[in-house]
Amino acid sequence: MSALAEMLQGEVARAAAETLLTVENVSLTFGGVRALSDISFDIRKGEIRAIIGPNGAGKTSMLNCINGFYHPRSGRITFKGKTRQRMRPYEAASQGIARTFQNVALFKGMTTLDNILTGRTLKMNRNFFWQLLRHGPAMREEIEHRIYCEDIIDFLEIEHIRKTPVGKLPYGLQKRVELGRALAMQPDLLLLDEPMAGMNLEEKEDMCRFILDVNRHFRTTIALIEHDMGVVMDISDRVVVLEYGHKIADGTPDEVKADQRVIDAYLGVSH
Ligand SMILES: Nc1ncnc2c1ncn2[C@@H]1O[C@H](COP(=O)(O)OP(=O)(O)OP(=O)(O)O)[C@@H](O)[C@H]1O
Predict the structure, then answer these.
(1) What is the pTM for the complete model shown?
(2) Which atom of ligand 1 lies at the shortest distance from residue 61's CA?
(3) Is the pLDDT of residue 271 over 50?
(4) Does domain 21-96+188-271 have CATH number 3.40.50.300?
(5) Rounded Cα gap, residues 251 and 31, in angstroms
(6) What is the ipTM of this complex?
(7) Assigned CATH topology for domain 105-186
(8) Residue of 27, 60, 228, 240 best suited for mutating to test ligand 1, as the one with most atoms within 8 Å of CB
């Protein structure tokens, strides 16, 4: 093999190794509404990838396709080298995709610790019988899961609310607990749907710091939807922009910021 061919092969292999998820020509419709039209982009291992766009652009629908909640009408999604046509949310979760929601989705009557422990469910090996007995291997396993969750609680600086029912917590802290539960799944890919929605400035700054820390400390790849452009441009490695279900731009924050179609979309210029 020539030196050039070898080099090219190396490049291809490296690019493949660096890509965690590929979305290819994905389309999704609801009755007459085309929520997504022929969308393609990728997410590289270790990056923070933002998905932005005006209201109704298709951002949440895209996350829902990635985590198996919606099944695209056409196109395909490849995660960790495995291409799938249809996948259910629990299969996506067991393969390493965790998710938080636009409106917090926690068990409001349960404590912070118990909510975060629910994130370990898929990691539990002992069956229901052992868990009922709370004895032997099941007991040991539960202790290990609790230690793991306590570490996450320390990491997210929420020790003071570990025994508080989450329904009693302010919204910003509930969002942090939800992040904790997703982290408890030890995901390869973390999907965050508007993690800073409804937060005040201080809460937003905290959440930004935690997202960056999660990315660096756990090396978790993150895809996030966020409306706050300052935040998106500050913390993302790359940004994909949707408008009316179409992809209109894809690149670094600087590239996207300078793109005329993006400027028009955000200023409401009709095409
Ligand atoms: N379950 C559904 N049934 C019918 N239409 C839907 C459904 N989910 C989304 N849509 C439609 O698909 C389009 C894209 O919606 P989506 O929620 O993905 O946009 P979005 O960019 O996340 O918007 P927002 O920023 O307001 O959350 C919209 O026209 C929306 O009305």
Answers:
(1) 0.86
(2) 18
(3) no
(4) yes
(5) 32
(6) 0.95
(7) Rossmann fold (3.40.50)
(8) 60
